Amino acid sequence: MIAIIDFGSQFTQLIARRVRELGYFSIIHPYFVKPDELQNAEAIILSGGPRSVLSEDHPTLSEEIWQLPIPILGICYGFELMALKEGGQIQTCEVREFGKTSFTTCAKSILWNEIPRESVVWMSHADQVTVCPPSYEIIGSSTNAPIAAFQNLQRKRYAIQFHPEVVHTDFGRQILHNFLYHIVKAKQDWNLTSWIDQEVRVIREKANNKKVICAISGGVDSSVAALLVHRAIGDRLHCFFVDHGLMRLHEPEEVEKMLLQLHLPLTVIHAEKDFLKALKGVTDPEEKRKIIGKQFIQIFEKEAKKTDADILVQGTLYPDVIESSGGISGIAAKIKSHHNVGGLPESMNLDLIEPLQYLFKDEVRLIGKQMHLSDEFIHRHPFPGPGLAIRIIGEVTPERLQLLKKADWIVREVMHQQDKEQRIWQGFAVLLPIQTVGVMGDERTYQYVLAVRMVQSVDGMTANWYPMPHEWLEKLSTRLTNEVKGINRVVYDITSKPPATIEWE
User: Fold this and answer.
1) Cis preceding linkage at 35, omega within 30
2) Residue of 9, 131, 3 whose CA lies nearest to 73
3) Given pLDDT bands bounded at 50, 70 and 90, which one contains residue 341?
4) How many CA atoms lie within 13 A of 12 on its CB side?
5) What is the pTM of this model?
6) Distance CA 310, CA 233 (A)
7) Most buried residue, 48, 154, 282, 360, by CB count within 10 Å?
8) What's the confidence (pLDDT) of residue 305?
9) Average confidence (pLDDT) over 164-193
10) Using CA atoms in the order 29, 133, 80, 41, what is the torsion angle rounded to 10 degrees?
11) Which pLDDT belongs to residue 347?
């Protein structure tokens, strides 16, 4: 087992996911983990985190864990913490490093096996090591950090300032492989097939003889979650698809048809009026999300009473969890609320099963493929639970909702016509709360601005904006302004994640 210690990083689960990709079993622990819980660990990886090691109350590890005779790799905050613990010096950066930066190896290390001397890494730090710990040697530097990696060969302790787990680090996967394969010499015995079998057993044990309901949207996440539970308990599962009126054009009909093809017990609930009424006059994005979450809960509470259910299944993914809460250790920064994260009201008296809560979208797609889901399900673009409500900046009105539905249909149609190789992870339209002057047919117009966003990603934790060819942009702009009455200006979002999130709200 590879133990990953969480210090509140947005990417802790991404480290675990990379370790799993390399074939090693891993478990995430909070930084206050007890030493006896790590007795089966072959190695420890220390995550990044939002805190500074210079603060008085910074999270750290117990002395017993530091003294364990196993290899340790520190990443970002873990790098700084190891430096501080081992006698190095830290100070606040004069020039912070966020995003891609040049990195140079400056000494031999097993960690750099098959890594070129010069490469690009992904940084996210405001502190830096100014004096390397005694008995350690410097093995790497970056543009603004002369000490960006160090090692102690005798104790098998390694630390790097950058994040090898994100796709933006050129040779991050190779670095983790070098640590686990060459240094730790761990056994590669983990795969998704074994995960499916194990998760089905866990669900069967938790559900026992109880009745279970599932919130299903037609996306790959909730569909895979439902299939896992159905494989475990059969027809004791009943699925509910809530049409909240905030889905894309023609989507409710398409989703209902697809769900019936899965042969899952299904009830469709039409609740557009209830959701739009609850959202009337609301402009704050967090309040929108919470209102929609509350409406979902009220609907499921009502249906749970009808079915006498004991458990609710949700297709929550790890990015939802990490953005909505404090992660494993409870100290990660909250980015935004997700309607399916945060537990259920006590009045519901339902237990939760979230079989995918520590997985990423691409892993869920692989599981769906192994469970014989159709490509139509597997490759559906991610769609947020609150739907188009968080793609309408400002108040959600029936008029603005219909306008965005028409615009979004055109965006998706052009995208699917042009993106034959499925390079785009997610593409959509956002209706802005501003109007601008335009001219159509020699007449003045004063209409809405529409933003188009398309990104490339692997797991949703980080993303690059998609460089859409100019001819696509021209076609999109022409169709949107000609075919959607109420739009006279189109803009293209060229912001990556970070610093932005994929959705605007």
Assistant:
1) no
2) 3
3) very low
4) 34
5) 0.66
6) 13
7) 48
8) 82
9) 92
10) -10
11) 61
Strand ranges inside 9-83, DSSP E? 26-30, 43-46, 72-75
Q: Which backbone phi and psi does 98 adopt, to 5 degrees?
A: -130, 120
HEC letters along 385-423: CCHHHHCECCCCCHHHHHHHHHHHHHHHHHHHHHCCCCC
Q: Which two tokens stand for residue 451?
A: 């933003």
Q: What's the DSSP call for residue 38? A: G
For 90, residues 6+ apart whose C-beta sits below 8 A from its C-beta are 53, 54, 80, 83, 84, 127, 128, 129, 130
Q: What is the residue type of 302?
A: K
HSE on the CB side for 290, CA within 13 Å?
Answer: 9
What's the whole-number mean pLDDT along residues 377-402? 90
Q: Which two tokens stand for residue 467?
A: 């460089």
Bridge pairing between strands 311-313 and 487-492: unpaired
Tell me the two tokens of residue 84.
Answer: 């501080």
244 Cβ contact list (under 8 Å, min separation 6):
271, 272, 275, 292, 295, 296, 387
How far is 174 from 77, CA to CA, in rounded Å?
Answer: 21
State the average pLDDT over residues 132-158: 94
The contacts of residue 326 (CB under 8 Å, 6+ apart) are: 8, 332, 334
Active site residues per annotation: 76, 163, 165
Q: Which amino acid is at 40?
A: N
The answer to whether 41 touches 51, Cβ cutoff 8 Å, is no
The amino acid that residue 63 corresponds to is E
Q: Quote the Cα angle for 148-153-158, to 5°.
A: 35
Distance of alpha carbon 357 from alpha carbon 372, whole angstroms: 21
Long-range Cβ contact pairs of 144-148 (< 8 A, separation 24 or more): 144/93, 144/94, 144/95, 144/96, 144/97, 144/101, 145/93, 145/97, 147/83, 148/103, 148/121
Task: Estimate the crossing angle of helix 361-370 against helix 192-207, to 10 degrees.
Answer: 90
Backbone angles phi, psi at 80, to 5 degrees: -70, -40
**At 345, is the secondary structure helix, strand, or coil?**
coil
Mean pLDDT in the chain? Answer: 89
**Mapping DSSP to helix (H, G, I), strand (E, B) and coil, where does residue 319 land?**
helix
CB 244 within 8 A of CB 218: no
End-to-end CA distance of the chain: 38
- What is the SS3 assignment for 35? helix
CA distance 308 to 494: 49
